[in-house]
Specification:
Elements lengths: L11 H12 L2 E7 L5 H8 L4 E7 L5 H7 L3 E4 L12 H8 L5 E4 L1 H9 L3 E18 L12 E12 L10 E7 L4 E6 L4 E4 L11 H9 L19 E3 L7 H6 L2
Parallel strand pairs: 1-2, 1-3, 2-10, 3-4, 4-9
Antiparallel strand pairs: 5-6, 5-7, 7-8, 8-9
Helix pairs in contact: 4-5
C-alpha cells in the first residue's frame, strides 16, 4: 500500500494506513550466517502466514533492518563463530527488548555473547547426531515433552556469563543429560536460543517449538498448513556453492 509521507493524524490516508497495517502479514527477518541449513529453517516458517525476507549477515545494515519493521527475527546457524557473524550480534542488541528473536546454533551463541557469555570449543564435537534434551517447559518448550530427541551439528558450546550479583539476564532452559546448554532464554524479554536444529527430521517437536516462538508475536494462535507452504520468501543472498538455477531462484 502507498502511504504518502507527511499525512497528518486524522487525515484519510493515515486512517487507511492504520486499517491496512492492522491486517498486514506478519514479517520475519532472517539473518543468514552463510549456512546450508538456513533454507531448511526458512522452509519451516514458510508453512505460516509470514512475509519472509532473508539477508546474508554482511548484506544488510541496522537501518535497513529497522526499515523493514519485522515482527520476528531469526538468527541462523553458521559454520563460523559469533565474531564472524556480521550483523547478528548488533541486531540482537538493537531489538531484543521488543521484537521476538530466535537464535539457532550459531544464533544462540551470538545471543549468549551479547550478554557477556563465551563461545568455547567442545571436547566432543557432534555433527548429525542426536541427544536427549531435558528442558524446563517454559517459553519455546511449552507443551513439549521432556526429554525429547534433538539433532546436533556443532563443535562450539555456550558458556553463560556468571556474575556474583546474579546479573546475567539469560537462563538455561534446556540441556543434555551431561549438562551442555541446548536452550537459553532472556528472563524478561522475548529472546530465545537453541543449540540444536529444530528443522532436522531427527528433531522431535520442531514445529511445536516454531509455533511457541511465533506465539510471542502477532501470530499468537497460528497453526501451520501441513500440506503446502503459504508464502515464498524473498531471498537477499545465495547459498554458498549454489548452481546458476538456484541463484536465479533466490531472487
Amino acid at each position: 500500500m502507498y502511504h504518502p509521507a507527511g499525512s497528518g493524524h486524522g487525515h484519510p490516508d493515515s486512517l487507511w494506513a492504520a486499517f491496512f497495517l492492522e491486517d498486514r502479514v506478519a514479517r520475519l527477518l532472517v539473518i543468514d550466517n552463510y549456512d546450508s541449513f538456513t533454507y531448511n529453517i526458512v522452509q519451516m516458517f514458510m508453512q505460516y502466514d509470514l512475509d519472509i525476507h532473508v539477508h546474508r549477515n554482511d548484506k544488510i545494515t541496522l537501518d535497513q533492518a529497522k526499515a523493514y519493521n519485522p515482527d520476528y527475527i531469526l538468527i541462523s546457524p553458521g559454520p563460523r563463530n559469533p565474531a564472524r557473524a556480521g550483523i547478528s550480534k548488533p541486531l540482537i542488541k538493537a531489538h531484543y527488548k521488543k521484537i521476538p528473536i530466535l537464535g539457532v546454533c550459531l544464533g544462540m551463541q551470538c545471543i549468549n555473547e551479547v550478554f557477556g557469555g563465551k563461545t568455547v570449543r567442545s571436547e566432543n564435537p557432534v555433527h548429525g547426531k542426536t541427544s536427549m534434551v531435558f528442558h524446563t517447559g517454559e517459553h519455546l518448550f511449552s507443551n513439549i515433552r521432556s526429554p525429547f530427541t534433538a539433532a546436533r551439528y556443532h563443535s562450539l558450546l555456550c558458556e553463560l556469563s556468571t556474575t556474583t550479583d546474579g546479573g546475567n539476564p539469560l537462563g538455561i532452559t534446556a540441556q543434555t543429560e551431561d549438562g551442555i546448554p541446548m536452550g537459553i532464554s532472556h528472563r524478561t524479554c522475548p529472546l530465545h536460543g537453541v543449540q540444536f536444529h529444530p528443522e532436522s527430521f531427527l528433531t522431535e517437536s520442531g514445529y511445536d517449538l516454531v509455533e511457541n516462538f511465533l506465539a510471542l508475536g502477532p501470530l499468537a494462535s497460528v497453526k501451520r498448513d501441513e500440506h503446502t507452504g503459504i508464502n515464498k520468501p524473498v531471498f537477499r543472498g545465495v547459498p554458498a556453492g549454489a548452481s546458476a538455477e538456484t541463484a536465479e531462484a533466490c531472487y
